[in-house]
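Build the 3D complex.
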Amino acid sequence: MKSTNHIKDLITKMADDELILGHRNSEWTGLGPILEEDIAFSSMAQDKIGHALALYEILHEQFDEKDPDHYAFLRNEKEYKCCHLVEFPIGEYDFSLMRHFLFDYAEMIRYETLANSSFEPFRLLSKKVKGELKYHTLHAEEWIKQLGNATDESHARMQQELNHCFPLAAGIFEPAKEFESQLMDEKIYPGEKKLYELWLDKIYSVVTQASLNLPDIGKVQPVFGGREGYHTEYLQLLLDEMSEVYKLDPGANW
Amino acid sequence: MYGGGYIFDEPDRRQRTEEYEHDIPEKLAEFEARIEGGEKIEPDDWMPSEYRRQLIRLIEQHANSEIIGALPEGTWITRAPGFRRKMVLIAKVQDEIGHGQLLYNAAETLGKSREAMINDLLSGKTKYSNVFNYPAETWADVTVIGFLIDAAAIINQVANSRGSYGPYCRALERICYEESFHLKQGHEAFVGLAAGTPMQRRMLQDALNRWWQPIMHFFGPPDTISAHTEKLMQWKVKMASNDDMRDHFLNDYVPKVWELGLTLPDPNLKKNGETGRWEYSDPDWDLFFKVIKGDGPCNKERLAVRSWAEEHGRWVRQALMSSKYRRHAPVA
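Done.
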């Protein structure tokens, strides 16, 4: 039988990113700078967790992996393939907003290209997800432009967080060492390098309109490791919290 | 959620006397006749200053309760067991914040800004439903809140939605519609634990035992000691008495809890076959007033969280008010 490890690896990293960032976004419920932002971050959290669920379902249904709850809540930290960007605590709103902007544009581009994937479940999922991401990216764009252009403080905070988040966001595009060429050859997706280039084009125009400067791209050291199971210190803590109740009795119906 | 029946009132006699003097008897008679006839009062209509003051107090406290009420459940979003519970809980708590937003908007039509209301909440000048000053210790607490506290709040809110102030009634109609889904999800999660493993049932029973007193406090003190009710009922600001709402709640929900083989920690709780009213041990009202005054288990923690949000979000709000950049309508 033909190996499917390459597709499983790609799905797992995409799903883990969505789950962990959805979890983080949900932490804004009750804490936003204005009520409208609490609501916005909660909405995006629901969408992201929904995307994660859809991807874990593909793993379960097409590749006989464990059911989504089990797969999402009970793996060891090393088995998660999320990038470091999504693992960090929510911090202040400036960090969370910049992360949302950089991540959601990357996600948008990924799902746009998956519309042409040779893997049918990706094509179907792409249709649904793109519609939601349109609003996520509109939200991010509006806020980045507003805060980048408003006061000295908001501008400085946005620039600082762009500098801080950029290498982490570049880590979204960590190629799968073992599988990258196979995924591209089989036209599952166009490869991380290509996605990174498309992403840079997209964010460049928003960043410019926000009066912000991208760091020197040539000198940026992307933060890799997450796709290989090497994580920040924050992931284990997040996983402990996330599975706290579920682990009391994983066999029970919650 | 989450309007409780008890509306805290800061005593300020002098101000009220002054306001009464400015009200015009003929207009007052006309106003009361409109309410008597079932008409809604709208923001631009004449209204006695006491009516305005009482409504601001009521709606503001209701709005405060929504955003503070999001906190005890909100802390469980990150720990909800499984995808379904997690997504449902985020959506539910998000709705509550949305209700806060709707209600602050409704209160703003009476002339008090959202900023002023949030400031008064943080300074302790205005209150929120007392029930949120208790901790949600386990997942079972989330299901008790989602089922029984939401159920209690719906009784109060459905009553208030028949009140006299148009913007508040319209906000409540939408809120009650969403709340009916919250109640379903709360009930389902509650039954899930009740029908679950022995450990899950123990968790649930423990949570019920701890929450029973706050639930009995929810509708406020008995009618015999509840102040300033008559005028508010005539003006259709308050639509049902505390005791009536409490009885309504007990009648609808105690049997549902008992049906599941669970117990409630009050040996005197029973329906009187002759009067048709529920009887119960008198909850500790001294404790109730103590918690209202700020000495409950979580008062400080709840306000500290809201203060964090206010302080750390200030730069964002300032940036929104900046004239340097004006947003354009997105081409969606």
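Residues 5-211+220-248 of chain A form a domain with the Ferritin fold (CATH 1.20.1260.10).
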